[in-house]
Amino acid sequence: MTHAMPLLLLAAVAAGTPVELGALKADAPAAWKELPAGNPMRLKQFSIPGPGKEGEAELVVFFFGQGQGGDTQANIDRWKKQFTPPEGKTLDQVSKVSNLKVGAKDAKATMVDVTGTYMFKARPMDPGPGEPRPNSRMLAVVFQTAQGNYFLKLTGPHKTVEGAKKPFEGWIKSFK
């Protein structure tokens, strides 16, 4: 019984930034640093620290309005095309699509996990091939809610994203 209070305090301190996706809410992991949204299309933006000398990853949450932003498969296909697979591999071989069970009954989350060379663009719809960022990884989610689809995109160095995968999935699943 004497150990319960410190654990409760630790849990309270460990909570991060509250995030709302329509009527659904969850606290981001405490290690994630909220940043000012880089442009008006971004609802939330976070920096996620990497291990050792690995660079930071970026998590961006987009919301374009109910019925906007495209369907799940179109977004997964577009996100996969932002990568060049390693020599001898196809995009399908370096990506995996999965459904995440979320706490809210009226929500659904579909995630794509892709690795390779990320063809970074500051504005994704700009023409041209983008800046190659080798050894990268992306976890991207279409989060379907009654208020519309939210699009969450976590990109960065492979090791940084690997370290963030469990907290990211846990965060997605915690929305209620």
Descriptive report:
The chain is α+β, with helices and mostly antiparallel strands. It has a domain at 52-173: Protein Transport Mog1p, Chain A (3-Layer(aba) Sandwich), CATH 3.40.1000. It contains three helices and ten strands, in the order αβββββαβββββα. The strands form two sheets. Strands 3, 4, 5, 6, 7, 8, 9 and 10 form an eight-stranded antiparallel sheet that branches. The protein has a two-stranded antiparallel ribbon with strand order 1-2. A hairpin with a 2-residue loop joins strand 9 (131-145) and strand 10 (148-157). The longest helix has 16 residues, at 158-173. The model is unreliable at 1-13 (pLDDT under 50).
CATH architecture of the domain at 52-173: 3-Layer(aba) Sandwich
* Percent helix: 10-25%
- β-strand number: 10
Contiguous low-pLDDT stretches (5 residues minimum) are 1-13
Quote the beta fraction: 35-45%
How does the overall form come out from the CA principal axes? globular
Distance between the termini: 29 Å
Provide the CATH top-level class of the domain at 52-173: Alpha Beta
What's the average pLDDT? 89
Give me the secondary-structure category.
Answer: alpha+beta
Q: Report the CATH topology name of the domain at 52-173.
A: Protein Transport Mog1p, Chain A
Helical run tally:
3
Largest sheet: 8 strands, antiparallel
Layout: helices, strands, pairs:
Layout: H1 4-14, E1 15-21, E2 24-29, E3 33-35, E4 42-48, E5 57-63, H2 72-80, E6 83-84, E7 95-100, E8 108-120, E9 131-145, E10 148-157, H3 158-173
Antiparallel strand pairs: 1-2, 3-4, 4-5, 5-10, 6-8, 7-8, 8-9, 9-10
